[in-house]
Amino acid sequence: MLYGREREQAALDELLEAARAGRSGVLLLSGEAGIGKTALLDDAVARAGEAFRVIRAAGVEYEAELPYAGLSLLLAPGLDRLDVLPGPQRRALEMAFGLADGGAADDGVAHGRVAGGGPAAGEGHADRLLVGLATLGLLAELAADKPLLCVLDDAQWLDRASLDALLLAARRLQAEGVALLLASRTDSAANTGTSVQRRLGLPELEVAALAEADATRLLAQRVGAELPAAVRDRLLSEAAGNPLALTELPVTTGAQAHAPGGLPLTSRLLIAFHGQVTGLPAATQTLLLLAAAEESGELDVVLPAAAALGVTAEHLAPAEESGLVTVTADRRIAFRHPLLRSALLQRAPHHQKLSAHRAIADALPEGDRRTWHLALAATAPDPDLAAALERTAVRAERRGGHGGAAAYERAARLTPDRDDATRRLVLAAEAATEEGELTRAEALAGEAAARTDNVLAHALLDQVRATAHFWRGSYPTAYRLLLDAADTGIDPSYAARMLFQAFHAAWYAGEEPVAAVLDRLAALPLTDGDPLAPLARHLPAAVLPALGRPAAALPPVRETAEAARRAGAESPVDLVQLCGATLILGRDDETSDLGAELVAEARAKGTVGVMPTLQFFLAEAELFHGRHHDAELTATEALGLARDTGQHQWVSQLTALLAYLAALDGRSDHCTDLAATALATTGPQTAAPAAGLPWAQWALALLDLGQGRAGDAADRLHTLTTGPHRHHVSATRAVPDLVEAAVRLGTPHRAAEPYERFARWTTAADRPWAEALRLRCQALLGPDELAESAYRAALDLHEAAHRPFEQARTALLYGEWLRRTRRRTDARPHLRAALETFDRLAAHPWAARARTELAATGTPAPTPTGTRTTPQSPLTPQELQIARLAAQGLTNRDIAAQLFLSPRTVAHHLYKAYPKLNITSRTELPTAL
Question: Rounded to two decimals, what is the model's pTM?
């Protein structure tokens, strides 16, 4: 029976009831050690009863991280259903669990960044996002015939790879009938607890201390009602409402004893648990230490290890009789509470722990678990063990999990050869960078650099430092480190990759760093057969002219992409920057074509990690072509993927792009909310401005301009187009808006310098639509006697450009100019055309302005609809995306595979879409859409 947990039990009932109705839900129970989280998990399992399928696992405090160890235990009941998953997801999960070979040689040497390759997210490596999506698919499959209750205790000790996969699945659960229930410690004793709480971002219920009345009832149940009042009051005071303290402290301290003064409650509980263990026979204590050190508690491992130390299965009986452990149905030793395991590991003498790890290793088959236990038992350098640990690190990286850095570092410590140890330290530093442990990466890089004079090693370590600086927002430092590293005489192929990374850092540092990187890249002596050579030639030609610098002729992007593929470039990963570069000089049609192709390729291959980047570029192109709804669909999906993968840069960029789209159709509150989110979204370790700052500034300025706040718009746009980000795509394209706002304010001089740069850019871009925008700016800036010819020339160019929004804005401005010059009859057709386009695009602020101008000519304007007029308008972006795919004839399972959802979620959204479209079945979708 649980005392005082009515609030928590009501939340559990709500979660279970939703799952019974087919709705998925997630709940995190948080609180200090012993507060009753596990008891609530047990209560939830009991309340679920036979109506639910239940799967359960727990994180285990352990000295080594084995990627996906926790997830493999949790999903073990569903591994016979892997065949239902889409191919890339199934393969990723099989690789993560070690059920399939990753395709790389397992020869004891890390063929990684030091040796010339690196664990890129290619076909031989498990994509972490795909593992999470596969987890979602398997949970949905397990819930196919009855609701699923998925229980995870001690999430703070779950290996990071498993936790990341579960969190991704949790964020995408919708209509599968899955109840995901987690528990995590928040006290400082669980060293990762605080960081885990911050990373989870799930619906959370803090389990608080028991009220005094409930604590008194629990204590009476535990020790009897005859306890003297003074002793009872002292125990209640010391326990402070912690149920575990109320049940354990009285047993171990005795009725009259006093708890150690000044110690935190968790420490006192550890002492209490250890006190219970010390009263057992020595052989039983040894067996318990083995069970604590062996991370899974498997009897088939613990008992052979115990036998090697002269202990038998019979010695487990005293621990079972005292209730400290139980043996589960699947032959595992389960401790009464995780703190008991912690007490055993923390208070055992060092030599006993070494003996335990050695005995466990001897009882395990060859593999990563055995290697780690041998490493934990090692007391001296051992070249064979170091090599085995390096193989473990390689496998960890190939599986897409964390743990490679720890394995490389431990391997380095066990390596007697100085050069080999240094090589492994470099690998450890690089792996720590990829795992997001920047401080650890820099420390390892410093240690490795002090041990070697190797030029390539120092260049790679500078790349580690540069990556850390980049993610902290120190873009100039990152750029300089990479530029210098690439200039040390290393192989041009290495230098090219460093310069591509330097370009990314320089993009946020300013125009001069960008030009310096591109000059260096253009001069790099890459052979024609190098996969990066076509890209290294294309990037300077695509960007330098936009900065007013000379460059070689720019080939069609399709030719560059095909040349790179023929030379062995990894697609789509190596072509991402190429796709984005096309936007810089206005090759939006190339962006649209290549972006759509690369996104489709990424879906098919399962290279999902690059999709937010590619879809951001694609959404920009769709927006610039006036396909606003397509841009919103693309950006919305990309935003979900970016959040799922923790790509803060693209979360900020995509949110800002969605803010711009909201500004277009006048959703003022939504625009400002999205812009605020974009500006507040930075990485957890960075102090730099948000990556989405330029797009957010443009979004807010467009909102101001559309609603007649020309002053505010001009201030934002002047900052954007003259500041350090003036070379960004959004800043360049925003110049015509600055010109309009400045002219409306009567301060055209504010736009003079940005306009001159924009004019040079349009010449370099050599695109009719760009020249049309320049002519519009020229018409606004004057002189007035040349305005009409400029407007007419702009409209002629717009006719062939297929950019309806910009064409309508030019028509609106021309119509306004005509009306001001008292040519109302001439103004009406232009204003009417602008109004029709704005209404069709649901650009409500601009439609309102056109309607007002048209009325001012003496012609009644059509009544505004007030909402989007397309038949798709009632649908959410996800509903519309699913409906479009269903209209093409794809099955729910096909759609789920494409959009990384479960088939039941797809069905749920389709059934919500039908009544909104006034249809009853999917066969009517092609007509309705």
Answer: 0.82
